[in-house]
Specification:
Strand content: 15-25%
Radius of gyration: 23 Å
CATH architecture of the largest domain: 3-Layer(bba) Sandwich
Largest sheet: 9 strands, mixed
Distance between the termini: 48 Å
Structural class: alpha/beta
Number of strands: 22
Shape: globular
CATH topology of the largest domain: FAD/NAD(P)-binding domain
CATH class of the largest domain: Alpha Beta
Helix content: 40-55%
CATH superfamily of the largest domain: FAD/NAD(P)-binding domain
Number of domains: 3
Length: 535
């Protein structure tokens, strides 16, 4: 064992590598451990405006311009052309019914589009994680991080002054010491397993597993649906240049299209469905994938000429997990190591980056104090509660597109209010970084700590169940009124107010509602260039 490092980070996904790099830039001695090797196969992931804000704050604070480039599609293509990405203009939703061609009319009863940007240049990005993760590992090493791959940590022990990490490297025993350890292993949950940290006592009310892969030559779904007779009124962006969500009876599918035509696809299957069936189809991911697609003719047609890239369709076990504790005296977990529920609203990158911001600020001058660790842990628990409540409501409502849209309105009203508030009121800049623990990174994600959002998210699942059980027109009307009333004081973007559910970026409406941010219309108009530059 060498002299103990200041910090050891377990796991070199984008969050772990980024945190290690930032700490090394502040002069800390950092060890970064990886079980595999880069570049490695990984599913695509979809960013959001809140993630872009976090990247821009990190780029400014640590003088790392490549992080700002990752925040917008135009910047990415200009500054990082070697990293594959896709333009994400917003969120597209379709509702399918088994054994029927996809149908939709001018009323968009089975379709919804929600913009996150006005054009492709300033849009969010789909991340091809194999490229992004390898890039961030290389930048971490260039910053002075001691990177060791093909190391599996098998035990972690406390000594008097540090933590001892024991593991295996290509069959040989290895041992490292660190004064503080960050677990960025995600589903690996290295520290939880090492210290016997129990799962959280509140069981998640839904259970899914994931079939996923990368495909070439997938026809854009909107093209196939239109040829099959579906009416798709023109929206604020082309349907497929977004995080596309297909709601199915078995669960739901996401599709992320990259600029080179590659499609990263994941099929979330609820456990009762995933556990049913027999024979090879129930055991083989590829067979199960084909069986589910065969029930949805228009979706199957989109994949008719597709070719899965090696290693083909893969499968996970149950996705939902959450631990009781996120910190100890000498260790902490990044958010998605502490808890993970579902990728439905693309929360992963933004939440992970907030965790990176917080831990970097806490660790750059030495080990964090107990109050700092407690603050970090308390916020992670509240944020996990918010996500769990929102996603449980979404799964209750998933079979009824009207109800599901209502749940999504809670999410979009919440995040758009925070995104615009930060842009317009200047909190994204934060150029005076003398105290990063007071930055926007410490505002609760998804409204955690805000009584209004906590109440709305917390009530949503129970209210949705009531509507599903009742089924009456009156119950559905009460649901719609409850959602509209709940978000009214924060609804800067008019979500839920379009009869066709096509939501573009409307700065005129934003000016009209400037009072929701405590601004006059003149003050909002003056700040719009800042908002447009950020978008």
């Amino acid at each position: 064992m060498t002299t103990p490092y200041d910090v050891a980070v377990i796991g070199s996904g984008f969050a772990g590598s980024l945190l290690a790099r930032l700490l090394a830039l502040r002069g800390r001695s950092v060890l970064l451990l990886e079980r595999g090797r880069h570049p490695r196969f990984s599913l695509g992931e979809s960013s959001t405006p809140l993630a872009a804000l976090a990247l821009e704050r990190l780029a400014a604070r640590y003088h790392q311009p490549d992080l700002g480039s990752l925040a917008a599609h135009g910047r990415w293509r200009r500054a990082l052309p070697g990293l594959r990405c896709g333009v994400k203009r917003g969120f597209t939703f379709y509702r399918h019914h088994p054994d029927e061609a996809y149908r939709n009319s001018q009323a968009n009863e089975a379709r919804m589009l929600v913009s996150a940007s006005p054009d492709a240049g300033v849009a969010d990005c789909h991340w091809l994680r194999a490229d992004v993760d390898a890039h961030l590992v290389a930048r971490a090493r260039a910053a002075g991080v001691d990177y060791r791959d093909q190391v599996e940590v098998v035990s972690v022990e406390e000594t008097r002054h540090h933590l001892r990490l024991s593991g295996r490297h290509q069959g040989d025993a290895v041992e490292y010491g660190a004064r503080f350890v960050v677990d960025a292993s995600g589903a690996g949950e290295v520290l939880a397993r090492a210290f016997g940290i129990e799962p959280h006592g509140s069981e998640v009310a839904f259970s899914t597993r994931l079939l996923y892969g990368h495909f070439e030559s997938v026809t854009p779904f909107a093209d196939v649906a239109t040829r099959a007779g579906a009416i798709l009124p023109a929206g604020p962006y082309p349907d497929d240049w977004a995080a596309v969500h297909h709601l199915l009876d078995e669960g739901w599918m996401y599709a992320l299209r990259f600029d080179d035509g590659l499609l990263s696809v994941g099929l979330l299957i609820e456990e009762p469905t995933a556990g049913s069936g027999s024979g090879a189809g129930a055991r083989d991911p590829g067979s199960q994938w084909r069986r589910v697609l065969s029930r949805y003719p228009t979706l199957e047609s989109a994949f008719a000429g597709a070719r899965p890239l090696s290693p083909g369709v893969r499968a996970t076990g149950r996705l939902q997990r959450r631990r009781c504790h996120a910190v100890g005296e000498r260790w902490a977990m990044l958010p998605q190591t502490f808890a993970f529920f579902d990728p439905l609203f693309s929360t992963g990158i933004a939440w992970s980056l907030l965790g990176v911001e917080r831990l970097a600020a806490m660790l750059e001058d030495g080990p964090p104090s107990p109050p700092e660790l407690d603050r970090y842990s308390t916020l992670l628990r509240a944020e996990a509660d918010q996500q769990q409540a929102l996603l449980e409501a979404a799964y209750v409502a998933r079979g009824d597109f009207t109800l599901f849209r209502g749940v999504s309105f809670l999410y979009f009203a919440c995040v758009s209010f925070e995104e615009i508030r930060q842009r317009v009121l200047g909190e994204a800049d934060e150029l005076d970084h003398r105290d990063a623990t007071r930055s926007a990174a410490w505002r609760g994600f998804l409204g955690a700590g805000d009584a209004q959002w906590t109440a709305l998210f917390g009530q949503a699942a129970a209210r949705a169940r009531t509507v599903v059980g009742d089924g009456s027109v009156a119950a559905r009307r009460r649901w719609t009124e409850w959602v509209a009333s709940g978000i009214e004081s924060r609804n800067l973007v008019g979500i839920g107010e379009s009869p066709t559910h096509l939501y573009g970026v409307d700065t005129t409406l934003l000016v009209e509602r400037s009072g929701l941010l405590g601004l006059t219309e003149a003050e909002m108009t003056k700040r719009l260039p800042r908002l447009r530059a950020g978008l």
